[in-house]
Structures are given as C-alpha cells and as structure tokens.
Write a structure and sequence with these properties.
The chain is mainly alpha-helical. It has one domain. Helix content is 83%, strand content 0%. Helix 1 runs antiparallel to helix 2. The longest helix is centred in the middle third of the chain and has 60 residues. The protein is rod-shaped, with a radius of gyration of 28 Å.
Length: 89
C-alpha cells in the first residue's frame, strides 16, 4: 500500500506540468521517467515485504508443526491413560 500511494503521488507530480494528455510523446516521456524514479522506493518496500512474509510463513509453519506434535502427544497420552498404561514423559 505504501508503494501504491507513493507511486500515485509521484505520477501526479510528474504529469502535473503537462497541459493535457494529447501530446503522446511528452506523456510517454514522463511515464518512462516515472518508472525510473519509482524503482528505488518500490524495490526497497518489496524487499522488506518479502522478508516479512518469509518470516511470518516460517513462524506459522513452525507453530503448525508444534501444535500438530503437541496434539498428537496429548492424544497418545490420553489413550494410554484410558487404557490403564502408564507413561513417563
């Protein structure tokens, strides 16, 4: 969302000097320059977003594995207890 807002502001600022969009060459030049100017911010934000996503996915996977293991352990202990078998953890 940060990149989208930044892109919108940048593009508006760059197209502001044009009187209208009938001059396709001037519009194309400003648009091409827009893609060059937006690159540093968008690349930084995208890199940070990807890193955050990877961290949250790996944490979720670890939590799922832990919860799954814990649930299986509880089921096994419960089954052993119900059958009268003792268990040391």
């Amino acid at each position: 969302m940060t990149v989208a807002l930044s892109d919108t502001k940048l593009l508006c600022d760059m197209l502001q000097p044009l009187p209208d969009f009938t001059d396709s060459i001037a519009t194309a030049n400003q648009t091409a320059e827009f893609y060059t100017k937006r690159k540093p911010l968008s690349a930084t934000i995208n890199t940070l977003a990807n890193a955050l996503y990877k961290v949250s996915v790996s944490m979720t996977q670890r939590e799922a594995q832990y919860t799954s293991s814990l649930g299986l352990s509880c089921l096994l202990i419960s089954a052993l207890r119900d059958s009268g078998t003792s268990c040391v953890i």
